[in-house]
Amino acid sequence: MPNTPDRPTLLYHLYCSLTSAAAPLAWRTVRKKLNAAGVPQERQQERLGHASQPRPDGQLIWFHAASVGETLSVISLIKRLGERLPDAQFLITSGTPTSAALIEKRMPPRARHQYPPLDTAAPVKRFLEHWRPNAGVFVESEIWPRLIVEASRRDIPLALLNARLSDRSVERWKKRPQTAGFILDHFSLFLTQNDKTATNLNDMGAPSDRIQLGTNLKAMSEPLPVDQGTLYDIRSQIADRPVWIASSTHAGEEETVLAAHAELLKRWPDLLLLLIPRHPERRSEVATLLENAGQSAAFRSKGEKIAPQTQVYVADTLGETGTWYALCPIVFLGGSLREIGGHNPFEPAQAGAAVITGPGYYNFAETFAPLIESGGATEVNSASQLADIVALWLSDAAALDKARAGVKSCVNTQKSALDDVIDTLCNTLDLT
Question: What is the pTM of this model?
Answer without folding.
Answer: 0.73
